Inverse folding.
């Protein structure tokens, strides 16, 4: 029987540092649906494949351990916008919500029993093929005047990029929470970041959001630094804030923010039940991949 109580979940996996042995990669491939396995296998670079595989294992671990659905009975599908969701009926926690993100050196997951949730991780890095000024010119329409003023006043180029990626993580977390996709006009949402400087290992919840010029009281944003270059934003919204969820809110949007817990590969497969036969060619395909591209690129979730 599924317990009607589930706390917030915040997990992270260091996919960038994971150098899977043959046995690990083949086991991971056996513990996801065939569609997921094929999707991971299509990534050109090993870094992206590892990040995506980590995300699929995080989701299955979450559902198996928190909702008590056997690993090999979990059915994951995607919305028309590409967001993974649990297809199995969950009557006790009808608004069970989870989201993943992978970029830079981490794959992360956030889950909530009642609240809408979206999560995004962004690594601060210099543009691979243009100057910072040119990069900002290309991205000009993604942010509001207030946000650009905050970015430009942040300090040197690295500090400006750091604030840029912080804002990007915030916007992506909201977009992913409401599931509206890339067509959403990002200038409709404006963030007033607070504090201006985040610290690794500490979660802040002071940033506020304006939607079409009006402050959104129904949304809260958790922000943290995983290290000195990885920003994480978690968007939390009450059911019905954007969308129509007939669920009584039992959890306060102003809850204490949650720290991320670091998981190892062994942690990820603790509850795993292999679902498909071993595929030796899957390991060869992985070995043939280049680790990463020569310059930074954004990977789809």
């Amino acid at each position: 029987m599924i317990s009607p109580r589930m706390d917030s979940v915040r997990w992270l996996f260091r996919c960038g540092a994971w150098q899977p042995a043959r046995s690990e990669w083949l086991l991971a491939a056996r513990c996801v649906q065939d569609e997921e396995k094929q999707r991971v296998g299509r990534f050109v670079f090993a870094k992206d494949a590892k990040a995506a595989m980590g995300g699929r294992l995080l989701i299955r671990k979450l559902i198996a351990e928190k909702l008590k659905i056997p690993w090999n009975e979990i059915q994951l599908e995607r919305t028309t916008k590409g967001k993974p969701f649990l297809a199995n009926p969950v009557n006790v926690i009808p608004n069970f919500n989870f989201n993943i993100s992978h970029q830079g050196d981490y794959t992360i997951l956030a889950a909530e029993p009642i609240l809408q949730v979206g999560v995004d991780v962004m690594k601060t890095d210099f543009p691979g093929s243009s100057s910072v000024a040119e990069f900002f010119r290309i991205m000009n329409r993604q942010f509001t005047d207030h946000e650009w003023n905050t970015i430009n006043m942040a300090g040197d180029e690295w500090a400006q990029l750091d604030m840029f990626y912080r804002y990007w993580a915030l916007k992506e977390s909201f977009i992913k929470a409401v599931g509206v996709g890339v067509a959403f006009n990002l200038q409709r949402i404006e963030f007033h970041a607070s504090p201006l400087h985040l610290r690794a290992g500490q979660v802040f919840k002071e940033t506020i959001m304006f939607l079409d010029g009006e402050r959104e009281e129904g949304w809260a944003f958790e922000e943290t630094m995983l290290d000195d270059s990885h920003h994480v934003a978690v968007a939390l919204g009450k059911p019905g804030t954007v969308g129509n969820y007939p669920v009584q809110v039992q959890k306060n949007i102003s809850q204490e923010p949650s720290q991320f817990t670091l998981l190892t590969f062994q942690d990820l497969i603790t509850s795993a039940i292999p679902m498909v036969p071993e595929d030796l060619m899957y390991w060869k395909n992985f070995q043939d991949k280049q680790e990463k591209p020569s310059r930074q690129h954004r990977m789809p979730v």
Residues 89 and 218 are 27 Å apart (CA to CA). The first strand starts at residue 9 and ends at 13. The helical segments are 22-30, 34-41, 46-66, 132-138, 145-152, 157-178, 265-268, 280-287.
